[in-house]
């Protein structure tokens, strides 16, 4: 093989490796998303069940309903934060991969510039 073919093969190998790493980071972020969603939803269902069970007690119905509404609002706030947490997890994973590559000696200027871009994006996701 000529040097051009070897270079092209190395570039293709690097491209495929980068694509796989991004897919794995996305998969981990997706798992984070669904884990947090299940935990939040489960907590809300348990809270709602306890609150509705209080309808049988002497506690005024108005207070029970207000507790349920408050729990629903808290759940809605928590659920809306989940995509941000997942995006942050995704960007942190990409940074971790990039840092591992550059500290291992395998990174070049392309990795450093990509890491700088990711850090800028990570700052936006955390805000």
**Terminal CA distance:** 50 Å
Q: Describe the global form.
A: rod-shaped
Helix content: over 70%
The number of E-state strands comes to 0
Helix-strand string: HHH
What is the oligomer described by this structure? Answer: single chain
The poorly predicted ranges are 107-115
Main beta sheet strand tally, sense and closure: none
User: What portion of residues belong to β-strands?
Assistant: under 5%
Helix/strand/pairing class, anyone? mainly alpha
Textual characterization of the structure:
This protein is mainly α. The chain contains three helices and no strands. The chain has helices spanning 3-53, 61-103, 109-126. Helix 1 runs antiparallel to helix 2 (61-103) and helix 2 (61-103) packs antiparallel against helix 3. The longest helix is centred in the N-terminal third of the chain and has 51 residues, at 3-53. The protein is rod-shaped and about 85 Å long. Mean pLDDT is 83; it is low at 107-115.
Sum this structure up briefly.
The protein is built from 3 helices and no strands. The chain starts with a helix and ends with a helix. It is mostly helical.
Sequence-ordered SSE layout with sheet pairings:
Elements: H1 3-53, H2 61-103, H3 109-126
Helix pairs in contact: 1-2, 2-3
Main features:
127 residues; mainly alpha; 88% helix
């Amino acid at each position: 093989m000529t040097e051009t073919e070897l270079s092209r093969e190395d570039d293709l190998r690097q491209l495929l490796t980068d694509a796989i790493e991004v897919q794995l980071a996305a998969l981990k972020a997706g798992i984070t998303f669904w884990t947090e969603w299940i935990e939040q939803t489960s907590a809300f269902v348990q809270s709602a069940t306890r609150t509705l069970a209080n309808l049988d007690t002497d506690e005024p119905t108005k207070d029970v309903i207000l507790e349920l509404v408050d729990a629903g609002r808290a759940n809605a706030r928590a659920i809306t934060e989940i995509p941000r947490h997942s995006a942050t997890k995704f960007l942190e994973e990409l940074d971790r991969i990039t840092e591992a590559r550059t500290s291992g000696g395998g990174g070049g200027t392309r990795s450093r510039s990509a890491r700088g871009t990711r850090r800028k994006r990570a700052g936006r996701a955390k805000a």
